[in-house]
What does this fold into?
Amino acid sequence: MRAALAILACLLLAACGEADPPDPPRRSACKGLADDAMVWIPGGTFTMGEDPDYPEEGPPREVAVKGFWMDAHEVTNAQFAAFVKATGYVTLAERAPPALPGAPPEMLQPGSAVFRAPTPDDRAWWRWVPGAQWRYPAGAGTDIAGQDRVPVVQIAYADAQAYAAWAGKQLPDEAQWEYAARAGAPALPEPVDGEGKPQANYWQGAFPAKDLGTDGFTGRAPVGCFAANAFGLHDMIGNVWEWTATSGSRADAGEPVGVIKGGSFLCAANYCARYRPAARQFQERGLGTDHIGFRLIDTKRAPPRQD
Ligand SMILES: [Ca+2]
It folds into this structure.
């Protein structure tokens, strides 16, 4: 956490970007997926990675994955609220941050990193917002009332692991996640259909100036608003980044980093383009943001019966 605070500025370069609350024309199409919906991912071999768009990607290599169950959607606010109610768990963003020499006063208070569109007077994209946590993803005045079906965010790696332990499941490793996201299909450079229509929640328009919201959302979307992939998984691409159990490496990080996958509603073609299954980013495990969530797998549950 300490190092995460110290290098918040790096997020300005490393991540992608949010805008105003969404006016969601597609919400009527969102599927009412059951909280506990999981789908069976049959084992197989796939080509993981691709010729790199970014230095940390690739090279492509053959990887075998055993079958496992996976959440059909990202963990929602309602699900995380049930976990907190049952356990009293307090997320990292709600705890007092470590004192950093020379840290501005606001960074001595519990809070987290929040994206805001830059202005001519303030070009920073990410800032520390006291009070930002899963119940108030962008700080005071941004509560999650009425957003039960929206993916929970402001989740640090330890928070996701705590939820997983309670739920009796696991975070996927990167190979499991990428295999599931690909679902046997060739990777697309951008998640659009043949007519150019967005098939995931990401950023249309020039980042970070303006999200046109062509996909129906300019922020997080409720789970299940976009078609599932061939395995029956929703929102593997876009909406929110998802934690994996795989560790990463980043020279400027003073604390362990983990691989996050899938990109988010902030990923745009002109800037981040990390809405591809092979894309990966190394995130400080002590720092959630308002565009990182997670989903879980179950490797202990028996495969479905083959009748
Ligand atoms: Ca969007």
